[in-house]
């Protein structure tokens, strides 16, 4: 008895240790590898719910298997019908009352977590970001820091002792979207005319992935999310750099001219120039981003050129039109964009 | 009163009339059995179509960055798949069985309103055809015509003129509007038939459970489909008459559509699953050779599910930014529904307990249903816990969960019902070996597909994406999920083949192949147009048990 208990303990700790080490590696978007308080509270609740449901499953599954095996028709049956039982008030009362108790417990556990996440007061030192969902990309505005960027969200890591959580205000420019970075928090929808909010306080630095989780149109699949959690120093440096105006040199002014006389500037903004469109991502610091097209491709010169030439080749159904530029024009525009650091 | 005297002699097949005349007689029929069969055949055709759409999606998702279909086609496929399976497969097939079985089981000659019955069927049929006409009609966009691409719950403002040009959304709206009239007509008919056409001695508490469950289903259809119809009209007003109910660019509300849709959408789940419970409640007792355990509690639990089911809709909306109070309320109402559902599972289990379980194909499907519905219920509890749902909703976990309900729960009992009542409807037995082959192929395919589909959801894969990035840990699971589809498809083809073959070549079934207890087994297979030569009179819930066991009839105990 004692030996078997030891074996069970060893097995459980082995499984636990394996799960612990494998969690982040299983997937960069694993909901069971939380690094932020809301995700952690959800994880703790989910473990409790999983334990309760697993217990119910084992019990009822066991009873079902037992019934199917034990009461199967025997070959040696005498052709008599089995004894007819029409019900039992005690039994039925039991399997009404016990589930009611389980439901009460699960309900209270859930209600506590709902309140702890949804009703958390925003501290005065919180970073505020306005997230605006567009078909099919993300706009990020830091209103108190004077930064506008797209598709790659930068936030500071939050020290559990001196938390600096990030509060997101979620808006939509067109259809419904949903902000979901599983390791940081549960998802919250971005709905036009219906501002929402959510918060996260990541305890680790690093890149956290996710994507739009509410069907928003043709390219819902490639509306990817990238959240860069940085140390406070790195984050401050990034903010400082993002507040600079665009630098333009003479060698690329040809590309800038083409950019400005083509319809590009209807949708895109470049700080400090006449380009002030707001339908597409702000390009002032395009080259500070690792990806283009909302994470659909790495931000390399070749990809950038290809994207300008034929957006549908990288992201079919995206809202960016092909402008029909000639090869020299493409080269000039790409060269110009590459200076936007 | 013997069984033969109730049924009358088997009618001799005279010279068959010409084919055109036979078809004509099916088109103009008001016979509940023929309309039932029309509903069922119609649903089977759409089952194949919807299955084909699912297969196309699964092939596209077999590996990351696959380009089997374009995003435009993929989005149309999931919209058509969902709309088809809910509105033009499961609902009509349930109406078909209800139509066929209810008059036979309550000892009536037909439904209460035979012509309303025919009208309702043809409205539903027209709705489905209109939906599919979008493939060739409308603007004929690239890839899949102008089939709708807004998802089966068509969230605003994606359906507004701004984001959905052309007529694809109009096909979706109008087809559901029209089939909705058919659904409400049939629901009224079912309720009226059950309340007004029962034979002598069949009080409400002596009805077969199938009648009780369909009565509840009928009530839910009227309550649930009406708001959907209203919402479709409002959407049409938005699109063509300058209304702004859901037009967010003019100050309309996207959340209002969500409430309208889910106040239909969640009761709809019970509209579909309660008739499935009805099949299980008829099949499990007969194949366990025992009376249903706790009949009054089963009835009470069903009605309870119906009422609570009307108050849980916003658990589809935990992430749309409702207040914490609203979220908490819907956690409670949603979890509460687990109690009556649990009672049902335990009562079926208790029905099997102490019986002699026969493992013919109908019972195999019902036993699998019990296992699978248990799991579906438990994953449902997980999502009822709102914070857990903030992670799980709109991911592949929720896709796996509701397919566990609709395929693992509803479709499995439906297959059971097909095999159980096929001898009654056709007069011939199906092939048992092929039935078992269908069962095993389908259960393997089902578990390959839908067990493993939970995993990418937990690993962060959202639903409705036509492709995904490598390196997310999703690849292997998607491959397994797609492989399962082919097992399921093989199972369904064998099922159809079995039905066709058995219809022409099967052994004659006789009136009562299962040694059953309810009134439909007292008449011939297939029953005559008038069902019963003399309207039967009953004294208990199992009139045929009383006939077969005059020494120990049920009415001694009820």
Overall description:
The complex is a heterodimer of chains A (341) and B (558). Helix content of chain A is 40%, strand content 17%. The longest helix of chain A is centred in the first third of the chain and has 34 residues, at 37-70. In chain A, a hairpin with an 8-residue loop joins strand 6 and strand 7 (188-190). The model of chain A has no long low-confidence stretch (mean pLDDT 91). Chain A has 341 residues and is an alpha+beta fold. Chain A folds into three domains: 2-69 and 89-118, no CATH class; 127-243, Cupredoxins -  blue copper proteins (Immunoglobulin-like), CATH 2.60.40; 250-337, Sandwich (Immunoglobulin-like), CATH 2.60.40.420. Chain A has helices at residues 2-26, 37-70, 89-118, 232-242, 253-261, 264-267, 301-309, 311-314, 327-337; strands spanning 127-134, 137-142, 147-150, 152-156, 166-172, 177-179, 188-190, 196-200, 206-211, 224-230, 291-292, 297-298. Chain B is mostly helical and 558 residues long. Chain B has helices at 3-7, 19-27, 32-60, 71-105, 114-133, 168-196, 209-240, 254-288, 295-309, 324-336, 338-352, 361-384, 386-392, 396-426, 432-452, 454-458, 475-505, 543-548. In chain B, helix 4 packs antiparallel against helix 5, helix 5 runs antiparallel to helix 6 and helix 12 packs antiparallel against helix 14. The two termini of chain B are 21 Å apart. At the A-B interface, helix 2, helix 3 and strand 9 of A face helix 4, helix 8, helix 9, helix 10 and helix 11 of B.
Distance between the termini of chain A: 68 Å
Q: What is the assembly state of the chains in this entry?
A: heterodimer
- Share of helix of chain B, binned: 55-70%
**Coarse structural class of chain B:** mainly alpha
Order of helices and strands of chain B: HHHHHHHHHHHHHHHHHH
The number of domains of chain B: 1
Helix and strand run of chain A: HHHEEEEEEEEEEHHHEEHHH
Give the rounded overall mean pLDDT of chain B.
Answer: 94
Note the beta-strand portion of chain B: under 5%
Q: How many extended strands of chain A?
A: 12
